[in-house]
Amino acid sequence: MLWLKLMLVILISEIGERAMCSGSGPVPSVKESEKTPYSLPQESLINDTSDGCNRQLLPYLDENGMGVLTVNCTKYCTGDKQATDVNGNPCIFKVKQAAKPGKVKVKEGSCRNGTCVRGSTRPPWRLVVLGKWCYCYI
Fold first, then answer.
1. Where does the secretion signal sit in this chain (predicted)?
2. pTM value?
């Protein structure tokens, strides 16, 4: 089951990468996010495109399974337009480099009107292993 989930993430990333190459413009890097002091490596992020708008996702795997966190709750669309991500989507509220290389610690928030906000409870730090996503052709 875990293998199937991993394949799904790889396929989604492939579709997103192909859409990014269609000339719709680059997704801004995490450096452009005011709330993110640590810059995530681009090869660790998944580019996702829907309705002509681009966003980046950070995949993670923990004891509860696999998931993704939205890097920025604002999506960038063609023609210098912006759209907000769906309210309630999980996002990166805070990120910092972990003690070990190739890992980061993130606090999860939820998207609300284009901004990642912390919920009513203080979320724990989640350790995320950064990886390079390979694009496999099946």
1. 1-19
2. 0.66
